[in-house]
Write a structure and sequence with these properties.
single chain; mainly alpha; 5 helices
């Protein structure tokens, strides 16, 4: 759910800092964990100086932590499913007799339920990343206009 209320007389500097806090999460595509490191650095530097930046810093970090939790849940579903299906179709005699691994006669019908669950988790992860990108851009635009923004489906880890 989105909450947008214009703030009274936020300075351009505060708007820019809060906007950059949101945009800094996009560094994850270039720097591992950049989506946590840079927002934390910006937020901790400015949280006592501006309530506007403090609000957006918390929103950014809560959103990123929520996405991490959702990603871990999807991984805990998908990885065991695919490992189970792989091991069920791995010929054990090749493993024990040191032969080349060849998966012959892969049983799709016997594993269709598991494969559907695993595939759904992978697709949901992909959708989560696309939605994340667009929500970060949207939040940045709202913030640059001096509005409070709250990401949807975000768990308030930092209050």
């Amino acid at each position: 759910m989105e909450t947008s209320t214009p703030l009274i007389m936020e300075t351009t500097s505060e708007k820019n800092t809060a906007t950059f806090t949101h945009l800094s999460t996009l560094t994850q595509y270039f720097i591992p964990f950049g989506n946590y490191i840079f927002p934390i650095l910006i937020w901790t530097s400015y949280k006592d100086k501006s309530e506007f930046v403090n609000h957006h810093g918390k929103q950014t970090l809560n959103f990123q932590l929520s996405l991490l939790l959702y990603t871990l849940v999807l991984a805990l579903i998908a990885i065991p499913v695919f490992v189970t299906v792989f091991l069920q179709n791995l010929p054990m005699e090749a493993f024990f007799n040191d032969h080349d691994f060849e998966i012959r006669n892969f049983d799709f019908q016997g594993n269709i339920g598991l494969l559907t669950i695993g595939g759904t988790a992978v697709v949901l992860f992909g959708l989560l990343k696309v939605v994340e990108f667009f929500l970060v851009i949207y939040a940045s635009i709202k913030t640059s206009n001096g509005e409070y923004y709250k990401y949807p489906l975000t768990i308030p880890f930092i209050k």
